[in-house]
């Protein structure tokens, strides 16, 4: 069974990434394999909810995590919505499905002291790698961008005159993020060293390796993990935790939730609200210390 028209729809109309589309296709093929084996059926278009439920049960019995199962079912649901759109089916068998419960992962942000230790107390050298690494850390913490967004930044993305950064987010949604003066100073230093590289293969890309190639996500992760291992004992030290720290610290200082939503590139406030639990804890502390009846 070919899913070509569906994958074209995801890529061209929904602007999904190639990796996301590939994952959706793999999930559909896995489900198709299941109904072939269990129900001798070759068509997803004709399945009912009972059959889908059997597939979900089999995934649970095979030890697949609820979060992963929900993602697989979501891929199937997206396909049914596409079939409704094209008129190939009259109803969505997943229309009344409720996602499996998942445990919420608590993301613990870096403290302001930990970030200060990395940016102010560690001695970054003046060589290309060190200046680039500091620029990466500052950019993550001062803008809250995602790791993939940082990797894909172009030279033209940064405007030193207006002190802004143009970020291409999910589904090709563009946003403009302001840059702090300290970040601009590091950017100038990095760009000067970048010009001195012996060979540049990916000339349009902002962040490069010392050999002149586009930086890659694993290197970015290792950079953050490496520097923050010197300042933090937290188990998870990743670019996402820096993004989390950016949002949490802004909210702790009284930033408007809508403003933080725009800076993060979220499409809804619900996605941004996951960062508020820390700011609520901070508010409680302020409330207890400041309220005249808190000592009674």
Q: How many separate helices? A: 13
Tell me the series of helices and strands, N- to C-terminal.
HHHHHHHEEEHHHHHH
Q: Radius of gyration from the CA trace?
A: 23 Å
Mean pLDDT: 87
Q: In percent, how helical is the residue content? A: 55-70%
Notes on the structure:
The structure is a single chain. Helix content is 56%, strand content 4%. With 296 residues, the protein is mostly helical. It has a 3-stranded antiparallel β-sheet, with no helix packed on it. The radius of gyration is 23 Å and the shape is elongated. It starts with a helix and ends in a 6-residue tail after the last helix.
What is the element layout, followed by pairings?
Layout: H1 4-13, H2 18-39, H3 49-61, H4 66-86, H5 112-121, H6 128-143, H7 147-151, E1 158-159, E2 164-168, E3 174-178, H8 181-195, H9 217-228, H10 239-252, H11 257-264, H12 269-272, H13 276-290
Antiparallel strand pairs: 1-2, 2-3
Helix pairs in contact: 2-4, 6-8, 6-10, 10-13
Name the features:
hpI Integrase, Chain A, DNA polymerase, domain 1, 13 helices, about 5% strand, 3 strands
Can you describe this structure in just a few lines?
It contains 13 helices and three strands; from the N terminus they run H-H-H-H-H-H-H-E-E-E-H-H-H-H-H-H. With 296 residues, it is mainly alpha-helical.
